[in-house]
Amino acid sequence: MEGVLWYVLTGTRGGANRARILQTIEARPRNANQLAEELDLDYKTVRHHLDVLTDNGVVEKSGDDYGAVYLLTDRARHHWDTVEEIIAEVD
What we know:
The protein has 91 residues and is mainly alpha-helical. 66% of the residues lie in helices and 11% in strands. It has six helices and three strands. A hairpin with a 6-residue loop joins strand 2 (59-62) and strand 3 (69-72). Helix 1 (2-11) packs parallel to helix 6. The longest helix has 13 residues, at 15-27. It is globular, with a radius of gyration of 12 Å.
């Protein structure tokens, strides 16, 4: 999981936005629209990043498509110290 986190947060374009999304979800699960508003990002951009994070097992969604709330997976929660380390190193 640590390698996956490094990849999705530093190894590809958009890693900084994915880190912001993860920090926001960690504070409180939100849907894509709420994330877009809170982070001042385009809705489609947020959906793309959520898809990448979901495909890599970092977040999961709960609920139906439009209103689905995104949360950290248990694996991501277990490795949250790695997420914080990556964010600190990138900043």
